[in-house]
Amino acid sequence: MATKPISSIETPCVLLDKSRLQDNIHRIQKIADAQHVNVRPHIKTHKCLEILQLQDEVGAVGITTSKTDEALTFINNGVQSVTVAYPLVVDSKLDRLIATSSSRQVDLRLTLDSPYGLEMITRVAKRHGKKINIFLKIDVGLHRCGVAEDDPLVLELVKAIQEESCLNFAGLLSHAGHAYGAAISDQVRQIAQDEHQILNRVREKLEKNQIEVKEISVGSTPTILASDNYDGITEIRPGNYVFMDRTPLRLGLIQPQQIALSVLATVVSINPEYFIIDAGSKVLSSDQGAHGIAGMEGYGLAYPVDRFDDLSHEMTVLKLSEEHGFVARRNFDLPIGSMIRINPNHSCAVANLADFYTIVNDDQMIDRWKIIARGKVH
Amino acid sequence: MATKPISSIETPCVLLDKSRLQDNIHRIQKIADAQHVNVRPHIKTHKCLEILQLQDEVGAVGITTSKTDEALTFINNGVQSVTVAYPLVVDSKLDRLIATSSSRQVDLRLTLDSPYGLEMITRVAKRHGKKINIFLKIDVGLHRCGVAEDDPLVLELVKAIQEESCLNFAGLLSHAGHAYGAAISDQVRQIAQDEHQILNRVREKLEKNQIEVKEISVGSTPTILASDNYDGITEIRPGNYVFMDRTPLRLGLIQPQQIALSVLATVVSINPEYFIIDAGSKVLSSDQGAHGIAGMEGYGLAYPVDRFDDLSHEMTVLKLSEEHGFVARRNFDLPIGSMIRINPNHSCAVANLADFYTIVNDDQMIDRWKIIARGKVH
After folding, report:
1. Is the peptide bond before A335 cis (omega within 30 degrees of 0)?
2. What domains can you pick out in chain B, each with its CATH number?
3. B331 pLDDT higher than 80
4. How high is the ipTM of this complex?
5. In this complex, do B320 and A352 lie within 8 Å of one another by their Cβ atoms?
6. Cα dist from B90 to A13, B72, B332, whole Å
């Protein structure tokens, strides 16, 4: 498509800086290559085929998803290896996922943390005659899903997986999402170390029981940016790293110039305290950080579009209505009609609200990419 | 479509109880009829043609929208009278809205609060030879958009509107959104009284200047539920009332059984503190109330599906990840695979994340309605 200047784009709009995006994708792949671990990106962040293509080009080994229909959207577009890092426990979801994976010879990798999940997956896999790789989810501190390392269920579930001819025990999987709530990068590094140690202890316990643990898969962008040691880990599943946002910035893990996703908005009204812009919670989301963790003031860092990333003109989006953002004014004026560009708190949530990305190169729009798995909540 | 039991629906899913929805629509229309004011519902809440049809059947006089493309979606489906209660200041948006309204003989009613907006609307209206009704937005305490009542701009803008042959001064418009932040219903009633008094004072000032104020339009579901006096008001523009949610419940303005929109989810994992469900911030939103106002703990009130609205089994959705909800456990157990039904904090935000409503009658799914203006952010 023909390029056009940012100033001619209708707002609100989700901008994606292509060179920053590519830099982010390269950076994590280089870390992974140096540490000899695979990258299996979580596509819940971007839900976009063009971005996966960039990840594939540098060496991604497949994708991670949360939702059945996210997985199916990508499988139907040619993806051959998928980990659903979510405990699927519903027959109809497993049924269509396993049926399609079977007919397309997809390497399907499922996750479980309960006898209920094991029984459900076994039943549906048998129905389709498909052999499925299974990861046991270990709770490493988020206290969401997963089995605690000292729970007898660890050994029971793995043995039960091994006993089923339609299942293959692939290894251990975790998500240290509590890292998003850390105050400083050293805390994130500690959380990553703890995660690796927990998983290695579980692996040793299983090996003592003559059970091979082929893979150990970890996730979370902050822990990957903060870690310098991946002993025993075989795979990382970061999602947010393609875009970044205020959370890794707050944690001191990135510079503002590494944030690839931003929101373009227009000043529609002005009062003594605020520039009122046309991006509200229906564009920026009400997230104050990943996992609902509030580590930041407001809902984004805003700049006049021609002073983007310039700290001397940085403002805070202090409040949100559904269709309005309240940008706290500083010592400069902007007329109604001016454009404002915002680094969001949580880019995954912003992407989830949009239909497409507006791809930019400096201040030129160069393309539009569809968010193809938008709305795939099942 | 054939009916089927709720238990067979895939989750997460936005349920809409049809009889509660109809009751809510009737209740507000009856209040309006008794007070001799028109109802012009704000469709940003539901974005759905079938719901507007129910509102039309009992007497709605047109629609209110925030976004250009919301308005166009409804105009292209036959709506003949639209108020855009938002200061549109962008040529391209006004251009396509006025062009379509002109060709379809739509009664288009725009809102402004600045000389910039006036100039922009005038320019585009002239281009299309279309006469447009204009409301002046008055700030009644939300301090978002609108002119303060004692600002000389009130008279200047109205006179300037009157001088343009392509514009017609229709009256005054306000939104007392700060009512969502009240602690009790008496505060909401006071905010509504203040709103009416401010608008009537502005009307008197204009009338002293021989300017007729044909309409005075107010909004917000809480203020309408709390008010018993509409002196001088000609129109109400509520949105949230079709669904309701935890905010009017918290304010003591409704009973739980009046909440028409709920979220159905499945327990996918269990830990000592929480039932983990498959509805996270991408379904429930991170809103803690309208306008980002946090008056409630957590992100929704949850019940086992067969104990919906039963206070003895009420739980709080205490935390959200993107795809997971953390439901705080109480003194009863639920196995993995159980369904949970949730009254959300802010139903407008939940509807905005969904593609369709699943229409239910008691515990039977009876239909699906498309959220036709979903994603219309421009």
Report:
1. no
2. 4-13+253-370 (2.40.37.20), 42-238 (3.20.20.10)
3. yes
4. 0.97
5. no
6. 14, 15, 55
